[in-house]
Amino acid sequence: MAEKIVVLGSNGQIGTELVTALRKVYGESNVVACDIRRPDYDIKNSGPFEFVNVLEKDTLNSIFQKYKPTHVYLLAALLSATGEQNPKLAWDLNMNGLLNILDLAITYQTAKVYWPSSIAVFGPNSPKDNTPQFCVMDPNTVYGISKLAGERWCEYYHQKYNLDVRSIRYPGLISWKAAPGGGTTDYAIHIFHDALKKGTYASFLNAATELPMMYMDDAIRGTIELMDADASKITIRSSYNFAGVSFTPEILAAEIRKHIPEFTLTYAENDPRQNIADSWPRSIDDSYAMKEWGWKPEFNLERLAIEMINNLKK
Ligand code: SER
């Protein structure tokens, strides 16, 4: 059966690149981009687009009715920092958006569903280094709470209704095509923009805050590899730990200085995102993803910095 793919939240940082990648693999007309916001030129002109709010069940139902998708990717969400500014909205969007899609996927017998989780599912009492797949999880952001609850729902729908739902716990994703969406890891993107534009950046995280990160190309490739993997290989139906590279603002600045020697980094005090970062892992053990479906990252810090600088310069 030919794939028909619906991507909800297509205009965000991940969606923008995932839609383009999926259209290359499955054909432009077979990948329907959906968002509440107007799409950018590339998304709009390379295939179908629909205005969809994932909290509006009737609209969602008509999308499933119209396209009968074989694969659905649900990316619409409020991230960690913006979630804290509006906790009830974050919970509503992140949770009820997911439940709406899981239910429709059962009704319309959607073959596969993809939903991203995050390193935000971990909390202050989770091991910080090489954080294992299974450990104490006590997230203290509404974003992390919604992602952990969502993981449990995904596994529940798999066990109870045999839904083929797959998920990855993304680290901070570094990219240049679309703006990041209000996360705690966003400093690692802003720093490149400001280094090129102003030669200086004021980081909202302190010098030694180490967080797991990944270049977007790796994240997109990993996502498609997980979705392509044979179902028999996938034992985890909550969400897979997933790792690229870990670094601190200080280490990232040193890497940027190899290309922009005069770059200076300062630190902003008392940003609420510092507390969020301090509750998250420093590095992630992603051995289940490696063993079960062959995950392997390609971009180290050096390569990631070169890609960011060269592409943003253009
Ligand atoms: N990048 C996300 C955030 O900082 C983590 O999933 O919120």
Account of the 3D structure:
The protein has 314 residues and is an alpha/beta fold. The protein has two domains: 5-171 and 214-241, Rossmann fold (3-Layer(aba) Sandwich); 173-213 and 245-283 and 299-313, UDP-galactose 4-epimerase, domain 1 (Alpha-Beta Complex), CATH 3.90.25. The chain is built from twelve helices and 14 strands. It has helices at 13-26, 41-45, 57-67, 80-85, 87-107, 142-161, 187-197, 216-228, 249-257, 272-278, 287-293, 301-313, and strands at residues 5-8, 31-35, 49-51, 71-74, 112-114, 117-118, 165-166, 168-170, 172-174, 200-203, 211-215, 240-241, 245-247, 264-267. The strands form four sheets. It has a six-stranded parallel beta sheet with strand order 3-2-1-4-5-7, with helices on both faces. Strands 6-8-12 form a three-stranded parallel beta sheet. A three-stranded mixed beta sheet has the order 9-11-13. β2 (31-35), α2 (41-45) and β3 form a beta-alpha-beta unit. α3 packs parallel to α5 (87-107), α5 (87-107) runs parallel beside α6 and α7 (187-197) packs parallel to α9. The longest helix is centred in the first third of the chain and has 21 residues, at 87-107. It is globular and about 55 Å long. Serine is lined by residues 79-80, 118-120, 143, 170, 172, 183-185.
Features:
314 residues, alpha/beta, Rossmann fold, 3-stranded parallel sheet, 12 helices, 44% helix, binds serine
Unreliable residue runs: none
The residue-averaged pLDDT reads 97
CATH architecture of the largest domain: 3-Layer(aba) Sandwich
Distance between the termini: 41 Å
Helix content: 40-55%
Present as ligands are: serine
**Widest sheet: strand order?**
3-2-1-4-5-7
- Rg of Cα set: 19 Å
Number of DSSP helical runs: 12
Provide the CATH top-level class of the largest domain: Alpha Beta
Superfamily (CATH H level) name of the largest domain: NAD(P)-binding Rossmann-like Domain
Largest sheet: 6 strands, parallel
N-to-C order of helices and strands: EHEHEHEHHEEHEEEHEEHEEHEHHH
Strand content: 5-15%
**Whole-number total of structural domains:** 2
Number of strands: 14
